[in-house]
Design a protein that fits this description.
single chain, mainly beta, two-stranded antiparallel sheet
Length: 188
């Protein structure tokens, strides 16, 4: 079973009745689950791999099937291992580190299949790996906040490198809007 994780989330500035991920809605139990977790009956589960709540509350994988990526399957794929009916990566899973059932301590994370004490200064554990929330575009400011292209993570906020003149292609690592001082639009 996944360890219950309660998060303190500030939910301000929502409009139109929308509820942001991690924020409490009108029918919630008061339990706030972590990124990728699903609240079912007051407990948090990893919906991607929990065989009793596979992809949604109450979806049970039966007949020896396993839960991978929120879908009941015949077996685990992509190098993942079956640990109690849920497919997991033993090299990064804090609940199954190196082998099924080997859980890392509360101040440890799983790296390369071994529980490691803490992270480097300025880093936190997100999805089983240490990261810098000030610069990680997949965990910007807090775990699970992804900067959409062309945005990057700068000082814990998603923004462009220089929003007035450039756009950065994260995958290619180059500026695809070079400076141009030629005639304006519609002139030749």
């Amino acid at each position: 079973m996944t360890r219950l994780r309660l998060l303190v989330v500030v939910c301000a500035g929502l409009t139109g009745g929308a509820v942001a991920e991690g924020c409490l809605g009108p029918d919630d139990t008061g339990v706030v689950c972590g990124v990728g977790e699903l609240e079912c009956g007051g407990e948090c589960f990893l919906a991607a791999r929990d065989p009793r709540n596979c992809g949604a509350c109450g979806v049970v994988c039966t007949d020896g099937r396993v839960c991978q990526d929120g879908v009941c399957r015949d077996r685990c794929y992509d190098g993942l291992m079956d640990c109690g009916g849920g497919c997991t990566d033993l090299s990064t899973d804090d609940d199954h580190c190196g082998a099924c059932g080997v859980a890392c301590g509360p101040l440890e994370h799983c790296a390369g299949g071994t529980c490691a004490a803490g992270c480097d200064a300025g880093e936190v554990v997100c999805s089983g790996a240490c990261t810098d929330l000030q610069t990680d575009s997949d965990n910007c400011g807090r775990c699970g906040v992804v900067c959409e292209w062309p945005m990057e993570c700068y000082d814990g906020e998603c923004s462009t490198a220089d929003s007035s003149t450039s756009r950065w292609d994260r995958s290619a690592g180059y500026n695809d809007y070079p400076s141009y001082d030629g005639p304006g639009p519609g002139t030749f």
